[in-house]
Design a protein that fits this description.
- With 196 residues, the protein is α/β, with parallel strands linked by helices.
- A seven-stranded mixed β-sheet has the order 3-2-1-4-5-7-6.
- A hairpin with a 3-residue loop joins strand 6 and strand 7.
Length: 196
């Protein structure tokens, strides 16, 4: 599955696209091009990026990067606002410090995470997971490339099963979908009311 097919799975879901980790902007540029060509639903965009490079790695990251590595200038991210006719919000700083104060609590139809580190990836998934409605998707780039990314995703899935399900893994990303899960408790209550 490619990015376009993955994002299209959430076409009928109301909500923003949240980009965790802007980097050079290649992913977001690609996603905006799909929106502008009406290949996927057009959405408001929230982008979170420190522009100061990675935080210090934790043991879960297995020394995959160094603190401050992948530092990028912010101007290309600011320029994205001029490429699409929707609201584009840019929040500068590490998400561990900028959230929850810099989000309006609106639904998130698509969450794209490319944060690499274990702590940042897990923080982003845990924070935004509660804003994703049924049918929404999470796309995590480099799931099979970085140990910390994979550990964070696996922990999130383990703690949020059966509401979130891993539906595709390929060389570029892991795709997670929010499912409509009816609780056993509600089913039992409804059964009892029908029988009585």
């Amino acid at each position: 599955m490619d990015y376009k097919k993955a994002l299209k799975l959430a076409d009928e879901v109301t909500g923003s696209l949240v980009e965790l980790g802007f980097g050079k902007g290649n992913s977001l540029k690609e996603f905006i091009s799909y929106m502008n060509k009406s290949q996927i639903s057009k959405r408001n965009i929230w982008t979170y990026e420190s522009f100061d490079g990675y935080r210090a790695p934790t043991p879960e990251d297995n020394n995959a990067f160094k603190k401050g590595e992948f530092k990028r200038p912010p101007q290309p991210a600011y320029d994205m606002k001029n490429t699409i006719s929707t609201e584009v919000h840019l929040v500068k700083g590490y998400i561990e410090e900028t959230l929850p104060n810099n989000y309006d609590e609106s639904p998130v139809a698509i969450l794209h995470s490319h944060l690499v580190s274990y702590s940042s990836t897990l923080h982003g998934l845990n924070f935004f997971g509660k804003y994703i409605p049924t049918g929404g998707v999470i796309v995590v780039t480099d799931y099979e490339v970085f140990d910390g990314t994979k550990l964070a995703v696996d922990k999130f899935l383990n703690e949020n099963s059966p509401h979130y399900k891993l539906i595709d893994v390929n060389k570029n990303f892991a795709l997670i979908k929010k499912l409509n899960v009816k609780s056993i408790k509600n089913s039992i209550s409804r059964t009892r009311s029908i029988l009585t």
